[in-house]
Amino acid sequence: MAKFELDRLPDYQEASVLEEIRRVASIIASPVITRREFDKHAKVHSSGLCRRFGSWQKTLERANLADRYSGRTVSEKMRRQFSRTMTADDLLEEIRRVADALKTDRLSQADFNAVSRINARVIISRFGSWKSALEKVGLQLSRHGQRYTDDEYFENLLGVWTFHGRQPRYRELTFPPSRITAGAYEKKWGTWNRALIAFIERVNLDSEPSKGRRSQTATSRPRRKGTKKRRNVRTIPIGVRYGVLKRDRFRCVLCGASPAKKLECNLHVDHVYPVARGGKTEFENLRTLCQDCNLGKSDKIESENAG
């Protein structure tokens, strides 16, 4: 099976980021590089670049592409003046707006900064603390500090990846079906990108069920008299599941249903030839089915169902 790669940069050192900006610039034929066009081709999002360098204009300037910027210049002074004109009620309303946009009742400073036109520091300076400001609008602090195992982190990420049918973005872990925030991944691995790299490393390590593990087919060891025959292990390693889902484009191979099109769709990785009949947990014997198509299949072989 081919190795999987991220559709984002493996690291965000400034040299790597600037190289990626110039790479995308060479692809875009237009003399002007807009953020929307940039995001279609890049392995780093323009919003992150704006936070890092101050604005889209400053981002292009830093990459020696100032001549390809077109738009209103917004200085840091203008940003500060904008927040100064806001009353306490305006700031609270901005918190509510961001929470509504993210569809959450728990808001972290990082999530607020990713969406708002002002910085959470302004909120803290006015209300004394981030928690105090959230309490005034009936919100709660984002869940932090809850401990998860590596398997729980990776299973959650696979669920979100399957739901969107692609590599999830930082902000998307704020919403269901994710049970763990992106901030929790950052806290464990240092950055969101390192968490994604850890997931891909686990997937690639896990993607060949026959390497480094005992076969998951029925054992050939002779049974003792009077003992029951052992069934095959049905658990499919996360790397194998990811490979099958990605191969099948995160949709049911029978009806085409996917969570991206139908929110209630629940995808399963299914054995084509059942384990109970000697089917192996191998890439070629696995496929993606939605819950409806998989329901009632049990250990029957599809050809028998058709008969």
What does this protein look like?
This protein is mostly helical. It folds into 4 domains: 55 residues; 63 residues, no CATH class; 57 residues, no CATH class; 69 residues, no CATH class. 45% of the residues lie in helices and 5% in strands. The protein contains 15 helices and 4 strands. The strands form 2 sheets. Strands 1-2 form a two-stranded parallel sheet. A two-stranded antiparallel ribbon has the order 3-4.
Cα end-to-end separation: 34 Å
Overall radius of gyration: 24 Å
Could you tell me the mean pLDDT? 79
Strand order of the largest sheet: 1-2
> Which structural class do you get from the secondary structure elements?
mainly alpha
Largest sheet: 2 strands, parallel
Low-confidence stretches: 209-233
How many domains is the backbone divided into?
4
Number of strands: 4
Q: What are the secondary-structure elements, in order, as H or E?
A: HHHHHHEHHHEHHHHEEHH
